[in-house]
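As a warm-up, study this chain.
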Amino acid sequence: MFTPWRPHPWHGLPVGPNPPLTVHAYIEITPFDVIKYEVDKPSGYLKVDRPQQTSSSPPTLYGFIPQTFCAEQVAALCPGATGGDGDPLDICVISERPIDRADILLVARAVGGLQIIDEGEADDKVVAVLSKDPVWGEVKELDELPLALVDRLAHYFETYKQISGQPDVITIQERYGAEHAGRLIEAAQRDYLSHYPKGS
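Now compare it with the structure written out below.
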């Protein structure tokens, strides 16, 4: 089976081979990027969003899980959120070998995440490991990862939108493991089906 045209990376690709924990990740940014790229929602092409605001770059691959959406059910899992951020669910993927290109698809296993509120909206970041990775592939829980790596991820998201003289807009409420990550991915799948019914 194949498609004779390129599917939209958000709407045209399956969520993954064995969700909620083994999922596809469409990668928008690598640790080598000093520009924030994101998928253009109408076309599916990767576009320049903005230069990175600070000197830090993402410590892992960064993208989203296809056919997910952050709305009411995702917000219900994030105390204090006024709603979801209206984007597909973000995912950070750890790979032992450097992957230096974006606009790629990979298989990852969710091991946990960061519960983030960004300007009042739920903006969780699922943390995952690259499937079959020779170093990280057997990790199943966030607390099995080096604390320094998780701290680095948290610091990146706490600071990547900082503007000098402006108040911080991001709060990391907690770090969670694979069980909550699975519930979050299922909620994001339900939000997607609610807002983007099949065939619409």
